[in-house]
Amino acid sequence: MNKKGLALFLRARVRPPHPPLPPNQGRYPDSPPSQSLPLPNSNMDPSLSNHHRANNISPSLMLKDVKDWMHASMSIPAHKIEPVDTNLENFLQGYLGLAQEDRRELILVLAKDYDVNRTRVRDLMQQYLSLEPPHALNDGHSSGPEEEGILSAFYRTERNLRDAIKPMYALFFERLNAYPGGLKLLVVLRADLLAILAKENIPSLRALDSFLKEKLITWLSPASLGLHHITWDDSASLLEKIVAYEAVHPIKNLLDLKRRLGVGRRCFGYMHPAIYGEPLIFIEVALLKDVAVSIQDVLWDEPPTPECEASCALFYSITSTQPGLAGINLGKFLIKRVIELIRREMPHITTFATLSPIPGFMQWLLSKLASQFKIGKTETEDASTLSHMGFGSVFRENILLPEEEKMIVDSSVGYAVGNSGLEIMKNLLASTNNEWIKSDCLLKALKPPLLRLCARYLLKERKRGKALDPVANFHLQNGAMIERINWMADQSEKGLQQSAGLMVNYVYRLDHIEEYAELFINEGRIHASPALQQYVNNKPGPQGWSEEIDPENQHKTSKYYH
What we know:
Elements: H1 3-14, H2 46-54, H3 59-75, H4 81-96, H5 100-113, H6 118-130, H7 136-139, H8 145-164, H9 169-178, H10 182-197, H11 203-219, E1 226-229, H12 236-245, H13 254-260, E2 265-271, E3 281-288, H14 295-299, E4 312-320, H15 330-345, E5 351-354, H16 361-381, H17 383-389, H18 402-411, H19 421-430, H20 440-459, E6 462-463, E7 466-467, H21 470-477, E8 481-486, H22 493-499, E9 503-507, H23 513-523, E10 526-528, H24 533-536, E11 559-561
Parallel strand pairs: 4-5
Antiparallel strand pairs: 1-2, 2-3, 3-4, 6-7, 8-9, 10-11
Helix pairs in contact: 1-12, 3-4, 3-5, 5-10, 5-11, 6-8, 9-10, 10-11, 16-19, 18-19, 18-20
InterPro entries: Malonyl_CoA_deC (IPR038917), Malonyl_CoA_deC_C (IPR007956), Malonyl_CoA_deC_C_sf (IPR042303), MCD_N (IPR035372), MCD_N_sf (IPR038351)
Region (Disordered): 13-55, 537-562
GO molecular function: malonyl-CoA decarboxylase activity
């Protein structure tokens, strides 16, 4: 191992573990729930805490200092550049040195004490309503000097209203963004804000988050981001970040990293000049002959497909490195930029697809199985009462088809107990030892219902009009379609626990990306291949249930589902 590789992995392995974030905060859909703040969440930054201990400065006094620097950064006139910069620098260093509880207090002060000055807004609104519009505004005639004066009053009041309606922290954010290191701090501050909002739903904090999110969307527009092809020749510090942040499919060793950056593979990251040496988001691509059906085949493809023979660019991991950018869809633009680049450099690549996890499937399925088991048990106990009343439970549904029920019961001897196929399936999938994957009989019995129910989960289950699965929602709103569900595609412990080993291929059809995205966002339509039609309609094909793409149909017009 060379010095670069040794240094890289030593630093990556001794890096302090990231603290956990609240669920669904600070990560992209293809990213696991372990992504966290770029700075350790220990009480204080070591250098700053040493400084304050050496000077006998208590945490409470330090918090007061940071508040004072924040206030001064907003109140000092813009033309006094040096004092403003000094206070911004002090605030930047001081905030990173605060304990989490002190950060919470500071953010609450920022949200409440530096909000919109509603008294001034109210006064200006009354002043505006008291103005009498000149007749020229109504009849379209040219205005005279008197009417021009009235119009000037309107323009002046409207300008004052626009300024007054902005929260006072708007100027603070603008000045921080323009200061070196300030944009990175704003991203960290929003990550802290999101963590607080996960526990405390405070209106002023929601307003602060909404405003800061809009600003970050503007400052991190695609035009300001550079697409960087990450290779083994990049700096060790950049590669270290790739190793540390990649948790969709963790990088195991130096050989694994070199493989992902070598022949037949690509890694691209979005970089911003104000956040030097750190990708905001990165995507890993495999160049293959066909769309992969297993993550094992992608990660350990040896030897890799010669690039001149590849016809498919497979996106198998996309990771956001900044929790503070949650809800800002940089991935959409990254995927489109990467597709454009690959098409330009390798015109023989004609298929652009993903091999994606289904992180919410098992949670949804186990909840569904548990509720139906409970309903069935209650109905059995109260059968006489229900029969006498003339009705059964309106919540009851047949999760399993009759033939599936029989196959599970017949195959479960020695592996699980239960009085029904539904109960046996629930017990098998809820077990932590995953013994069921070691039995060929159980695999054969569970495959049809799992594939069918997974198709239902992806195509039918919604929350507020969006796909229930976060990864599905991400790719569908970006203009992809659902092509294929893959059986036993991720046999890792995480893959079995979150999706029973299933993975899904989303395909970006270049001629339909905008159309599919618009239909999904506006009407909730999900486009899927004809191969998935059999699952939704509960009708096996002539050869039985199949998770494979039909070569005859995979390029035909897709079906869509509401």
